[in-house]
Design brief:
Elements (H helix, E strand, L loop, with lengths): L1 H18 L7 H9 L10 H7 L2 H20 L7 H8 L4 H13 L5 H19 L11 H9 L10 H9 L10 H6 L6 H11 L3 H24 L6 H14 L24 H12 L7 H17 L16 H19 L4 H14 L4 H15 L4 H14 L5 H14 L12 H7 L1 H10 L6 H15 L4 H12 L11 H8 L5 H17 L6 H10 L5 H17 L4 H11 L8 H14 L13 H14 L4 H16 L5 H11 L5 H11 L8 H13 L6 H16 L6 H17 L4 H16 L8 H20 L7 H17 L6 H19 L22 H17 L4 H14 L3 H17 L1 H4 L3 H6 L6 H16 L9 H6 L7 H18 L3 H13 L15 H6 L8 H13 L3 H21 L8 H13 L12 H7 L3 H40 L3 H23 L4 H27 L17 H12 L12 H6 L45 H13 L75 H5 L42
Helix pairs in contact: 1-4, 1-5, 4-7, 6-7, 7-8, 7-12, 8-13, 12-14, 13-14, 13-15, 15-16, 15-17, 18-20, 19-21, 20-22, 20-23, 22-23, 22-24, 23-26, 26-27, 26-28, 27-28, 27-29, 28-29, 28-30, 31-34, 33-34, 34-36, 35-36, 36-38, 37-38, 38-40, 39-40, 39-41, 40-42, 41-42, 41-43, 42-44, 43-44, 44-47, ...
């Protein structure tokens, strides 16, 4: 049988190749084809072409060659080689066969049959390559093989059945949708013939396309078989051409790679998807038959990398969407890579490591792609050996410290997933491997990135930290606790992690703050037994964050903690203070979220009373008891608003009221239950009237207790009665009405009960027939009785307790507002006289009285408590609102009292009265507003805060204007001694008033310099009427207050727009420096500080345009805001042009003239001017040099002076680095980089909270010498070490001559030089600015100026882990070694480099709270004595009816 089969094969082979008539082909044509090495197309002669175009002949040849390949696989060695013998017998040589094959491949196809013939010829060639002996006859030719591979490109143009069905269902709108691969991938660059073939293919019918596709699969099968049998070890070009095309075929019909990787080529069927053939081909290329597996597999992995990354295969950076087929191909590629590593073992370690590294550094910088690919890297790392895993973990740690932001972010993403994986079991690991494999290293890397200089990295690190802390893995949580506890300063032994995390919660970036809050929540959970109050306080403060997302996150985090630990009393207080106010948030979504959480926390846990309540129910009533108590006055209005929201949503039901009534009957929760009932019943009309009457009699009528808690209970019951007045039974109405009349006339109630009683009696009287008309006479009787009792007190006929006097006064004020027609003028005079008589003994105001007393000419001396007098002024203010005739005398009296009284409650209430009266009597009260503004420097922080709040209200509503010194008085609170008040003042100024008056800073800036320095000689500025007391209170001139002045200037500059900065620079140069040149500002003791402050402002970094500052556009790009970066770039270009023109035309001429003047006068201000000129040269060196080209001598002089000045600075810096640190109070300080050694002490010093800004007292000698002593700190080249300031004089003290109080300045100074400069400026264009180097820190040249401001500017200490201090001064963001061993291409990966980050650049500018801090009272006072305002919203409106009306 075998012999017969072989005999038949031999005969068929002879017959076929004899019929092809290859010998008839012209010898010259064959030689010509070989001479061009198949690179050019040489057409077959027409006579030969007609005999070779038979499809059946080539199909038969293909079948015979397949039989020869099968014979090769099954027969003995001696039977091999007969195929080539037969060809020789037939007169056919490979030199004849190969040109014919190439020519038939190159024929332009016109029909489907032409395509199929060309594919079959290519398949024939690949089959002949598999016949034993083809290598000896050199059948393989790279150009012919390339033509065979090119046939496969047509597969990308033939849609699958699935794509056809989707195209039919897709509605046609306008243009035809672009093809996926032809348009998006741009598969490869085709020449003219290839494009012609594709065009002809697209014109074929769907049936023909399907037939061509089926034939293509046979070609693919032959290609896979060829790759399995023929070695491509020396065929680098062909292999490099084949792999990209196979990778592109993966997208044609995607499939799982693992299903076809090890499939034998003989098992591949026509039904096999094209992606399956491609995977088999790629797998075959990695086989050992081709030689060095590591080399070939690396090449395959390299071409698979874009598929894994889902980027364009042909490069260009285009991203594929995260959908099919790209995700399927990506998953299949990862499976293929993993399979190769597991299959070939250690031989694949190098390419496997390389592909992982390339994925890490080439991942698209988008969150979705990073999340997906970080999971891919994590899965691949799980297959690695322990040694390779150790190496890659260490490499990832270094990558997390790379200079490129995207590298650090992706490294953190991978670490966050790795740390969740179970630890690996090592088999005798080395010390280095064990250290690297520990999860501790990953945790430390994540913690160190929490202080990264880039916001996106900080956000990612903090989010990862929060994710770790939320893990259910107890070992991981224990590791996190240990690692955090190890973050300790070497010098101070204080933990650095917790302060760092709190600073991150106040970061300037919104996403960082949000992630920090999540991390804080986790940290509080981990240390709930030793919870730090500061951490929870930060969560509470972030509930008032300016960013909505941060507020929502703080709301959720604080609520989650409170719900998870319901028995923690500390959390109760912070939750109430932080969460409840958000129900009145400006954003509707925040209100809704807060109301929803409050429903979950409070409303859902209101159940009938039971002595054995669960923890959450006990927790809810504990919260409600706090709200219903004394300290809950501010919180109750939030509960009221919440109940209104619940009522609109239909959440309040009768069931809730019944449950609350059961608690009202108990003793523990009685007050809280009545508080809830007073808020529920306005929306759900239901009540147990029997119990209501019982509670009314017991708690109000029969009660004789006067403690505040009982008064609150009475107020809640009275509120319930007011709301249910129309529903009360008739007998209960009459009973309550009578009891209320008796209660009001008894004058024994507290102010809170009096207010509720008046509201209740009005409501009840409205529902009782004829009682409403009798209400006014009743109020008149009460007022008359109050007047009688107060008059008898004034005449000393009767003696009353303080509580009784307060009741009379408060009732008078409340009734006067409800019934103005019953108020008599004499009542106002009586109260005035009481206040005047009681204050005469101490304050001596009797002689200033303008009262007309009818009964006596001289007031008696009364002894009234301060709390009584505080209530008296509030009552007097209420009466003034009803009677305009007494306003003038009352205002004079209150103004005098405000100036001399020592009681803070009285001052507070008088300020409140003034600010209320100005709304109605603006003309009369306006003259007293300077006295009110003077209270911004009151000794009491409470009064200062109240005054600040009231003035903010009035300025927002335009009731008062920025007239006179009000602006300067207001901004002085920005440097108040109280840190909390400073934050609150900055919130009011920058967030409330600056939005209302955007130009107020610019319009007052120049005058601020004159005013704060007390300079009154200028012809335009600082001409205000001020008393000596006001000058003393708000004094800021002199060296002692320089720190405060500079802090104010800095705040002003930070809140200016770029356009305003340009105008301000021009204005300061013209009016101050120009005034100095013109002699308007003399160089005397008063003028020098003005010029010094001006030069500080001009040389400060804050006055530079924000758009021109370093890394602004880069930061936007790093955050992913490409549109914002483009807009900022265009804006920067425009502003840069304007700024250059301003410097050339306005700034430089004035600066040069001032320089010559100061040199002539030998003034110490020359140093400050040189600092300013130095900054100008850094930013506009090219423009200035072009400008000075008109006067070369002047240019040489300026360059020489600057060089000399810089040399002096350098010498002083070197001397300072060699001299021990001195603690002189006037040493000038800057912020160089801190060394690791100095880090601990710096952290501890910065964390100290200073309570006062009072400057130290300086001796006259020090005050005289401070102007001549200065140190300029300049970082040394290539060093990041600390430069220590030292008290070294620049030169000997220079005596400043004084002639007539100042320098005699000739008016003709610099006129010629100035004219030449201006002429040059007109001729000179604006050349392109050269790149600027980072400017040196500019300091105020008065030594200790900024040092006095430590309490105002507390830098953020730098956080680093124990591994962050490496190699002499490198900070935590600096990698110890470079990331190496990425070996695809030298240009494919930018090597990591050290991050040289200044500490000041990263953490010096902390987020300033834009929220109102909690009120801190210095001395506890009764709540009735002082009127405490809410935060700035709207002024309360009183029910006022004019007496005349």
């Amino acid at each position: 049988l075998y012999l017969a089969r072989m005999s038949q094969l031999l005969e068929d082979t002879k017959e076929l190749f004899s019929s092809l008539q290859l010998r008839a082909i012209s010898h010259d044509w064959i030689e010509e084809t070989w001479s061009v090495n198949f690179s050019d197309k040489v057409a077959l002669p027409i006579e030969a072409l007609e005999g070779l175009q038979s499809y059946e002949a080539w199909q038969c040849a293909l079948e015979i060659c397949h039989r020869w390949t099968q014979s090769n696989d099954s027969e003995e060695e001696e039977t091999l080689g007969n195929f080539w013998t037969i060809l020789v017998d037939c007169g056919v040589t490979h030199k004849q066969l190969l040109p014919v094959v190439a020519a038939l491949q190159d024929l332009q196809p016109e029909s489907a049959e032409d395509y199929i013939r060309a594919v079959r010829v290519s398949e024939l060639y690949l089959t002949i390559l598999q016949i034993q002996g083809s290598h000896a006859f050199k059948i393989f030719h790279p150009m012919i093989f390339q033509r065979c591979v090119d046939m496969l490109k047509c597969l990308e143009e033939i849609p699958s059945k699935t794509e056809q069905a989707e195209a039919q269902q897709r509605p046609r709108r306008g243009r035809r949708p672009k093809r996926r691969h032809a348009s998006e991938d741009s598969s490869c660059v085709m020449d003219a013939s290839e494009s012609h073939s594709v065009a002809n293919l697209s014109s074929q019918s769907e049936t023909d396309k399907h037939a061509i596709k089926e034939v293509m699969k046979y070609l693919l099968k032959s290609l896979v078989s060829c790759l399995s049998k023929v070695s491509f070890q020396d065929k680098d070009v062909s292999r490099g051409y084949l792999i990209p095309i196979l990778v592109k075929l993966l997208y044609v019909e995607p499939c799982q790679s693992t299903k076809y990787i090890d499939t034998p080529h003989s098992s591949l069927l026509v039904s096999t998807p094209i992606g399956g053939f491609a995977w088999c081909g790629l797998s075959a290329l990695c086989a050992s038959i081709h030689g060095d597996q590591t080399k070939f597999t690396s090449e395959v992995f390299n071409h698979l990398l874009p598929a894994v990354l889902m980027t364009n295969i042909d490069g260009g950076g285009a991203l594929h969407p995260l959908k099919e087929p790209y995700t399927s191909v990506s998953d299949a590629a990862v499976s293929f890579i993993s399979h190769c590593y597991k299959k070939f073992g250690d031989d694949m370690e190098k390419p496997f490591k390389t592909i992982i590294q390339h994925i890490c550094v080439k991942t698209p910088d988008k969150a979705d792609y990073r999340a997906r690919l970080s999971k891919v890297v994590t899965d691949l790392l799980m297959f690695t050996s322990d040694q390779l895993f150790s190496f890659l973990i260490d490499w990832l740690y270094k990558l997390s410290r790379n200079t490129k932001v995207s590298y650090r972010v992706f490294a953190l993403d991978v670490m966050s997933k790795l740390i969740e994986c179970p630890p690996r079991d090592l088999t005798c690991p080395s010390d280095d491997e064990k250290k690297a494999l520990e999860q501790r290293l990953l945790v430390k890397a994540i913690l160190s990135r929490c202080s990264d200089k880039t916001a996106s990295v900080r956000t990612n690190a903090l989010s990862t930290l929060a994710k770790i802390g939320s893990s259910a893995n107890k070992e991981l949580l224990h590791l996190l606790r240990e690692t955090i506890s190890e973050q300790v300063s070497e010098e101070t032994k204080e933990n650095l992690f917790y302060p760092m995390l709190r600073r991150r919660a106040e970061d300037e970036k919104i996403n960082v703050r949000k992630a920090a809050i999540q991390a804080l929540e986790v940290i509080v959970r981990l240390h709930i037994d030793n919870m730090c109050h500061s951490d929870v306080q930060v969560l509470r403060m972030r509930c008032q964050d300016p960013a909505l997302s941060v507020r929502k996150q703080a709301l959720s985090s604080l609520t989650a903690l409170t719900m998870d630990f319901p028995l923690c009393k500390l959390l109760h207080s912070y939750w109430l203070d932080g969460v409840l106010p958000m129900v009145m948030d400006m954003e509707t979504s925040a209100q809704e979220k807060c109301a929803s959480l409050l429903e979950e926390v409070i409303l859902s846990n209101i159940t009938p009373y039971d002595e054995e309540l669960v923890d959450h129910e006990v927790f809810v009533w504990d919260l409600l008891n706090i709200v219903a108590g004394e300290r809950g006055q501010e919180l109750r209005r939030y509960v009221k608003h919440t109940c209104e929201i619940w009522a609109k949503q239909g959440k309040l039901t009768i069931r809730h009221i019944k449950s609350v009534i059961t608690h009202a009957k108990s003793t523990a929760n009685c007050r809280a239950a009545w508080m809830l009932l007073s808020e529920f019943v306005p929306h759900v009309t239901f009540m147990d009237f029997t119990y209501l009457e019982e509670a009314w009699q017991c708690a109000v009528v029969q009660s004789t207790q006067t403690d505040p808690n009982n008064d609150l209970l009475k107020g809640y019951i009275l509120n319930v009665i007011s709301c249910l007045a129309s529903n009360l039974p008739q007998d209960l109405k009459l009973s309550v009405h009578g009891d209320l009349r008796k209660l009001l006339r008894s004058f024994t109630c507290s102010p809170a009960v009096i207010t509720s009683s008046l509201q209740a009696i009005i409501k009840v009287s409205e529902v009782i027939p004829k009682q409403k008309k009798l209400l006014d006479p009743f109020f008149g009787e009460i007022l008359k009785e109050c007047e009688t009792c107060l008059a008898s007190l004034l005449k000393q006929e009767r003696h009353f307790e303080d509580d009784a006097i307060i009741a009379y006064l408060f009732t008078t004020g409340e009734v006067a507002q409800l019934c103005p027609s019953q108020v008599l003028d004499h009542l106002c005079y009586v109260i005035q006289s009481l206040l005047l008589a009681s204050g005469t003994k101490q304050e001596g105001l009797k002689e200033h009285s303008m009262l007309k007393l009818s009964q006596e000419q001289q007031l008696p001396d009364l002894e009234l408590a301060s709390i009584v007098r505080a209530h008296g002024f509030i009552t007097l203010g209420k009466l003034c609102l009803q009677n305009e005739d007494v306003v003038k005398n009352c205002l004079l009296q209150m103004n005098q009292e405000l100036e001399v009284t020592e009681n803070e409650a009285i001052r507070n209430n008088i300020v409140l009265v003034f600010c209320d009266l100005i709304v109605r009597y603006s003309t009369k009260v306006d003259i007293y507003m300077p006295t009110v503004a003077a209270c911004l420097k009151d000794d009491s922080a409470l009064v200062r805060r109240q005054t600040l709040t009231l003035l903010t209200h009035l300025l927002q509503e335009d009731y008062i204007k920025w007239k006179g010194t009000l602006y300067f008085r207001f901004v002085s609170t920005l440097v108040d001694d109280d840190p909390e008040l400073r934050k609150y003042a900055e919130f009011c100024f920058t967030h409330l008033l600056l939005a209302r008056y955007p130009g107020m800073i610019f319009s007052h800036f120049t005058e601020s310099i004159f005013h704060f320095n007390g300079y009154e000689k200028h012809r335009s500025y600082n001409h205000f009427h001020q008393s000596e007391k006001e000058k003393r209170l708000f004094q800021m001139k002199g060296f002692a207050f320089a720190g405060k002045r500079l802090k104010l200037y800095t705040i002003f500059l930070e809140n200016l727009q770029d356009e305003q900065r340009l105008k301000l620079t021009n204005k300061l140069c013209h009016e101050v420096l120009g005034g100095l040149v013109d002699g308007a500002i003399p160089l005397d003791d008063e003028g020098i500080p003005v010029v010094k402050d001006t030069l500080f402002v001009l040389s400060s970094k804050e006055i530079k345009l924000k758009s021109l500052r370093k890394n602004l556009v880069d930061d936007l790009a790093d955050e992913g805001d490409l549109i914002g970066a483009a807009v900022e770039t265009a804006r920067t270009k425009a502003l840069s042009t304007i700024a250059k023109k301003n410097v050339i035309e306005n700034v430089i001429p004035t600066v040069i003239a001032a320089k010559q003047l100061l040199e002539k006068a030998r003034s110490p201000l020359l140093k400050d001017l040189m600092l300013f000129l130095q900054e100008l040269m850094k930013d506009y060196k090219t423009e200035i040099n072009d400008l000075l080209a008109a006067d070369l001598q002047l240019a040489e002089e300026i360059n020489f002076d600057l060089k000399k000045f810089e040399d002096e600075q350098q010498k002083m810096t070197v001397a300072a680095s060699k001299t021990p640190l001195t603690t002189t109070p006037h040493a000038r300080m800057v912020s160089p980089l801190l060394t690791p050694g100095a880090l601990g002490s710096a952290v501890s010093n910065k964390e100290q909270k200073l309570s006062s800004l009072t400057p130290p007292k300086l001796s006259p000698r020090v005050k005289r010498s401070f102007q001549n002593i200065s140190v300029v700190l300049t970082p040394l080249p290539n060093q990041g070490k600390v430069v220590t300031p030292v008290n070294t004089p620049v030169s000997k003290p220079i005596s400043t001559p004084h002639v007539g109080g100042g320098f005699a300045t000739p008016k003709t100074v610099n006129t010629l030089a100035k004219a030449a400069i201006l002429a040059s400026a007109r001729r000179t264009g604006l050349p392109k600015a050269t790149p600027n180097k980072a400017p040196l820190p500019i300091e105020y040249s008065s030594k200790k100026m900024m040092q006095d401001n430590n309490a105002l500017t507390q830098d953020t200490p730098y956080f680093e882990d124990n591994t962050s201090v490496i190699d002499g001064g490198r900070l935590a963001s600096t990698p110890q070694d470079l990331a190496q061993n990425i070996t695809f291409h030298l240009s494919s990966l930018a090597p990591p480099s050290p991050i040289m980050v200044k500490l000041s650049d990263r953490d010096s500018k902390e987020f300033r709270e834009a929220s109102s801090p909690p009120l801190k009272r210095g001395k506890k006072m009764p709540s009735e004595a002082t009127v405490i305002l809410k935060e700035p919203q709207k002024l309360p409106k009183w029910n006022i009816k004019s007496k005349k009306s």
